[in-house]
Design brief:
By secondary structure, the chain is an all-alpha fold. The chain has one domain. Helix content is about 80%, strand content about 0%. The protein is built from six helices and no strands. Helix 1 runs antiparallel to helix 2 and helix 2 runs antiparallel to helix 3. The two termini are about 20 Å apart.
Length: about 190
C-alpha cells in the first residue's frame, strides 16, 4: 500500500466512523434538551448500539489494513494499535467539528446549558426527588450557569480526546486479536 492510498483510506474510514459518532452525538444532545425521560432511556440503548457498531467498524477497517501485509511481514501489534489510534484521530476531528457547529453555533452554548437545566428540572419534577437533594441540585444548576464558556478549541479537544480514548481501549483489544507474527519461511497463497 503506497503512502497516498494509506492516508486516503484512513481519512475516508475515519470520516465514516466520525459521521456515525457525530449522529450519535446529535441524537444525545436532542435527547438531553427534550426533557423527555423516555428519550433519555433510549439514549442508553443508543450508546450500546453505537459502541458495538464503533467496535465492528474499527475491527473491520483494521483487519482490512492488516490484510495488506504479507505473511512474511506479519502484522505487528504496534502497527495495528497505531492504525486504530490514527483512525480514531480522524474520526475525532469529524466529531469535534460536529460538536462545535451544533453546540456553539446552531444552539449557542448558553442556550445549550439553559436547555439542559430546564430539561433536568422537568425530569426531576416528574420523579420524586428526596428533600435533602434539592440544595445539591440547586448548587449544581447554579454552577452550570456560572461556569465560563469553553473556547472552541476546548470543545474540539474534548471531542477529539474522547474519541481517541475509546480508540485506545478498542485498539488494545483489536491489536491483540488481529496482530500476527511474521513468518518469513511460509509462502503467501
Amino acid at each position: 500500500m503506497n503512502r497516498q492510498t494509506f492516508w486516503n483510506d484512513l481519512a475516508k474510514r475515519g470520516a465514516v466512523l466520525g459521521l456515525l459518532l457525530s449522529l450519535s452525538l446529535i441524537f444525545e444532545i436532542y435527547a438531553q434538551l427534550s426533557g423527555n425521560i423516555w428519550l433519555m432511556f433510549l439514549v442508553v440503548f443508543e450508546w450500546i448500539g453505537v459502541a458495538v457498531l464503533h467496535y465492528i467498524l474499527l475491527h473491520r477497517y483494521t483487519r482490512s489494513f492488516g490484510n495488506t501485509f504479507s505473511v512474511e511481514e506479519g502484522f505487528p501489534f504496534g502497527r495495528a494499535y497505531g492504525y486504530v489510534i490514527l483512525l480514531s484521530l480522524f474520526a475525532g476531528i469529524v466529531v469535534a467539528l460536529a460538536q462545535v457547529v451544533c453546540v456553539n453555533y446552531m444552539i449557542g452554548y448558553e442556550a445549550y446549558i439553559d436547555g439542559m437545566i430546564a430539561s433536568m428540572r422537568s425530569i426531576l419534577a416528574q420523579s420524586e426527588m428526596p428533600q435533602h437533594m434539592e440544595p445539591f441540585m440547586r448548587d449544581l444548576f447554579r454552577q452550570l450557569q456560572e461556569a465560563p464558556t469553553p473556547s472552541i478549541l476546548q470543545v474540539a479537544w474534548g471531542a477529539v480526546s474522547n474519541t481517541i480514548f475509546f480508540g485506545m481501549i478498542y485498539g488494545l483489544i483489536m491489536a491483540g486479536v488481529l496482530s500476527r507474527s511474521p513468518k518469513p519461511f511460509e509462502k503467501q497463497e
